[in-house]
Structure formats: structure tokens, C-alpha cells
Design brief:
The chain is of the alpha/beta class and 320 residues long. It is built from 9 helices and 17 strands. The structure holds flavin-adenine dinucleotide (FAD).
């Protein structure tokens, strides 16, 4: 089978973790299909990323020296079109990132490749590639195939594949960037509102609050409880939408995925598909809800039908 080409990303000199997750997806496919895995990095100093990209299972790293320090969509689209034409990979994997949104769909249209975005499952059914992604606001998962397409480009959801830890010894190849007509420039980075040093995607223990807390004045009680338990405070979307907690604490489809979490305490959260998209993988979900029919109980390891304020009081006494 034709090779799998992974397009790595860097920003401000840091390799994006999602690049290594795409490589992990490619290496997993290689184990069943035997294709070679090729990683490509486009940067002003691409050599500095080669060691990081040289993980077990990667056969070749292609370096492309860019005239720009930061991402620029025309550079990626035109360079990758030339590279794909030369290499003819069967599959191209790109992180599902803000950068990819700027060039991947356009590149797929130009090259007439098969395309799917935000993919979190990839497999071969015989020779046919099948990608899984969500639809209807995460309510259903759909499998997509690409009949008649020799080349398929997929943007891959982050925090889905675990990075390969072992290092490898790939061949290093250079690819010359073609002459490019740039239609935009990277000016500067605007920082988002600070996360105050909190990154819920890296938290091991989470205490998340939902609309069951009833009013803003009650947030403080649960924030203090989380602190005394040494849990990171998270929330459902209505809490962030109301401005009761900052957006960076929101778990779910339009918030964050708590990918490192091992214990998730859900207090007064009903368990909408959108919330569960960010936490349903957690091995130990403990849900407290007064409604025994709440959907959150369908994925909880431990379910407590109770008032969250009573449970909070018990926990406060315990962790005091
Ligand atoms: C495109 C899109 C993206 C979205 N993205 C997200 C997202 O990223 N994250 C997210 O969370 N939501 C998201 N939502 C919103 C989602 O659909 C739900 O509306 C939301 O998750 C509900 O939040 P909740 O569970 O806190 O509130 P509710 O659904 O109102 O549930 C509150 C729960 O608290 C229980 N309760 C009430 N009082 C108590 C009490 N005293 N003790 C115990 N239990 C009590 C109730 O029984 C109820 O089950 C999204 C929606 C859309 C359309």
C-alpha cells in the first residue's frame, strides 16, 4: 500500500503534540497494513524537529525549509500539493488544528483528494480506508469511505492517539519549497484570556460542576471543595456561558477534553452528549445527581442519587 504522510506542525519553535499523535495513528495503521510512515516538517529550521519526529515506526522524515518562521496557509497548501504530487501517498494525516483549517480543505479540493475532518477513528476494510468522525453536534458517529480516491487527506482529532514513546532511526530527506504566491502574512500572536496556569486537559483529578449548583454564589463553595481535595475545578457549558467560571474550565465538545484525567467527579451535571464528549473516556467517573434517570449515570462507574450540597458537606468534613 502507498505510504502514509504525516504533516507535523510547529508554533514558535515548539513541535505541536498533535503532530506526534498523528504519527501514532499512522504507526498503528502501519502495524496492520505495512505501509511506510513518512513525517514532514515545514519550518524555518526544520532540522531542529527531526529528533522529536524520529519515533519508532517512522521510516522517513522530510524537512522543508520555509521562508517564514510561523505558519502561513499558502506556503503549506502549495508546498504540500507539490510534495503529495511527487510522493503519491495513499493517506495524508494532519492535526485537526487552527492551522489545518486554513489549508487542508483547500488542498484536498485542489488535489481532488478524499477528505474528512476531525477524525477520531481510522481503519482499513480490505484496501478501503474508513474514517470515523462525529456528526449532528456529536450525537452520532459516522463512518466515511472514499470510493475512487487514490489519496485521502484527514485532519485528526487531538488527544485521541497516545504518542509513541520509543525513538526510531528514520531516513532524513530534504524537499525544496516551490515558488509560492503568498496572499496573507502572519503578523503577530494575540494571547487568549489567561488560563491562570490551569490546563484541565492535563489534570489527573477533576471536580466538575453543572447547572445543579443553581446559582453563582454557590461556585465558591465547590471551588474551595475542589482545592481541599486537590482536584482541578471544571464545569459544564452553562456555567461558563453564564460567566460563573472562565471558559478554559469548560469540559466538552466546545470546551476541552480532560485527556489525562483518572477520576472525574460530576456534580449536578446531566450528561449531555456534548459534555460527555470531553470526559466519557475517564476510567473513574463518579456522578452525583438528584435525577436517577440522568444520562451521566449511563457512563459513571459510581452513581450517587443525592443532592450535591449534601455530598459537598460530607466531603468538606472529610477533607477538612
Ligand atoms: C454545539 C454545542 C456544543 C456544546 N458544547 C458543550 C460543552 O462543551 N460542554 C458542555 O457541558 N455542554 C455543551 N453544550 C451544552 C449541552 O447540550 C448541555 O446543555 C449542557 O451540557 C448541560 O449542562 P448541565 O449538565 O450542567 O445542565 P443541565 O442539563 O441543566 O443538568 C443539570 C443537572 O443537575 C441536576 N441537579 C439539579 N439540582 C441538583 C442538586 N441540588 N443536586 C444534584 N443534582 C442536581 C439535574 O437533575 C440535572 O441533571 C453544547 C451544546 C451545543 C448545541
Amino acid at each position: 500500500m502507498a505510504e502514509i504522510l504525516v504533516i507535523a506542525e510547529q508554533r514558535r519553535g515548539e513541535l505541536a503534540a498533535a503532530s506526534l499523535e498523528c504519527i501514532a495513528a499512522a504507526v498503528e495503521l502501519k502495524q496492520s497494513g505495512g505501509q511506510s510512515v513518512v513525517a514532514c516538517i515545514i519550518a524555518q529550521n526544520p532540522e531542529s524537529y527531526v529528533a522529536l519526529l524520529s519515533v519508532a515506526g517512522v521510516d522517513e522524515v522530510i524537512t522543508v525549509t520555509s521562508v517564514e518562521a510561523e505558519f502561513q496557509s499558502d506556503i503549506f497548501a502549495e508546498t504540500l500539493q507539490a510534495l503529495i504530487e511527487q510522493r503519491q501517498p495513499g493517506l495524508v494525516l494532519v492535526p485537526h488544528s487552527i492551522d489545518a483549517w486554513g489549508y487542508a480543505p483547500a488542498l484536498a479540493v485542489r488535489g481532488q483528494y478524499g477528505f474528512a475532518s476531525d477524525v477520531f477513528g481510522i481503519r482499513y476494510d480490505g484496501d478501503d480506508l474508513v474514517a470515523t468522525r462525529a456528526a449532528y453536534a456529536e450525537k452520532v458517529h459516522v463512518e466515511i469511505d472514499f470510493p475512487g480516491r487514490q489519496i485521502v487527506l484527514l485532519t485528526v482529532r487531538g488527544n485521541t492517539w497516545k504518542q509513541v514513546e520509543e525513538s526510531g532511526n528514520p531516513q532524513i530527506t530534504e524537499f525544496a519549497m516551490p515558488a509560492i504566491t503568498k496572499r496573507s502574512n502572519h503578523e503577530t500572536f494575540l494571547e487568549p484570556a489567561s488560563g491562570g496556569g490551569v490546563d484541565i486537559t492535563q489534570a489527573e483529578f477533576m471536580l466538575s460542576i453543572g447547572r445543579g449548583i443553581d446559582e453563582e454564589d454557590n461556585v465558591e463553595q465547590f471551588a474551595e471543595l475542589a482545592e481541599s481535595m486537590e482536584f482541578t475545578l471544571g464545569c459544564s457549558r452553562p456555567i461558563a456561558d453564564n460567566g460563573w467560571l472562565p471558559k478554559y474550565r469548560q469540559v466538552g465538545q466546545s470546551g476541552k477534553t480532560v485527556s489525562s484525567c483518572s477520576i472525574y467527579l460530576a456534580l449536578g451535571i446531566s450528561g449531555s452528549v456534548q459534555h460527555m464528549a470531553g470526559m466519557k473516556h475517564v476510567p473513574n467517573i463518579i456522578a452525583v445527581n438528584t435525577d436517577p434517570e440522568a444520562s451521566i449515570f449511563s457512563i459513571a462507574r459510581y452513581g450517587v442519587v443525592a443532592d450535591i450540597f449534601d455530598i459537598a458537606e460530607e466531603l468538606e468534613n472529610h477533607f477538612d
